[in-house]
Amino acid sequence: SDVGSQKERVVTEEEWLQKWEMGNIGFHKTQGHPLLQKYMDVLLNGRRGLRIFFPLCGKAVEMKWLADMGHSVVGVEVSEQAVKEFFSEHSLPYCEEPVPEISGAKMFQSTSGNISLYCCSIYDLSSSIVGKFDGVWDRGALVAVNPCDRQRYASLMINLVEKNSRYLLVTVSYDPNKHKGPPFYVPESEIKSLFG
Ligand code: SAH
Question: What residue range is the signal peptide (predicted)?
């Protein structure tokens, strides 16, 4: 398929912040994603007390699901509004602290300690800051990354996962000449070359 029309497109962090300010967040699923319900067992694989990563997390309600199941959730999101809305919409008390390794970044953590959301760009993270993860829920993340940044994103994600991790990825399939994205169309062949 021809994805040439999307290859050059760039959505800036400022534009994402504006989407949040304008309430232009059609991607948010109030009821959570049915595909995570369906494939929860594949993600967990019978394991308990996992560390689960939500890249480009928005205010995904699935973070609450995993935390309620006893897992430890880490997310990253550029919009502080999104992060604060997550905690307030679930009536979760939280505290806020700077991240010494990343200038300007803040980490918002539920008082219970099992949900930590980094407010910064995902490209500021590394395993020395956030550790490694046993599971990843990638919905609205790879497909939201600018096409020119996909390689960098995938390399980072590979670095952030443990050997025996499980990674669930949701993509969208459509004619990229008819919609400029995001979500961008990422062909399966490209996913294979990015993640091996
Ligand atoms: N995964 C979420 C949100 C998808 S929309 C869900 O399923 O609802 C993509 C989100 O990524 C937006 O909230 C946007 O603000 C955020 N974002 C965009 N670029 C980012 C970056 N470089 N680092 C961290 N977050 C980013």
Answer: none
Whether 102 is in the pocket of ligand 1, judged by its Cβ within 6 Å, is: no
The string of pLDDT tens digits covering residues 81-92 is 999 999 999 999
Q: In this predicted model, what pLDDT tens digit does every residue of 100-152 receive, in sequence order?
A: 999 999 999 999 999 999 999 999 999 999 999 999 999 999 999 999 999 99
User: Is there a domain that residue 178 lies in?
Assistant: yes
Which residue is closest in CA terms to ligand 1's atom 16? Answer: 56
Number of domains in the chain: 1
* Helical (H) or strand (E) element with 156: helix 150-159
Nearest C-alpha neighbor of 99 from the set 87, 91, 107:
107
- Position 88 in a domain: yes
**Which ligand 1 atom is the nearest neighbour of the CA of 33?**
7
On whether 87 is known to bind a ligand per the annotation, the reply is no
Distance (Å) from CA 189 to ligand 1 centroid: 23
CATH number at residue 46: 3.40.50.150
pLDDT tens-digit map of 160-178: 999 999 999 999 999 999 9
Which residue do the tokens 């059609």 mark?
26
Quickly state the pLDDT bin for 64 (edges 50, 70, 90): very high
Is position 115 annotated in a ligand binding site? no
Place of tokens 């497109």: 9
Half-sphere exposure in the Cβ direction for 116 (13 Å, CA): 17
Q: Is 173 annotated as a binding residue?
A: no
Task: Please give the residue range of the domain that contains residue 130.
Answer: 13-24+31-195
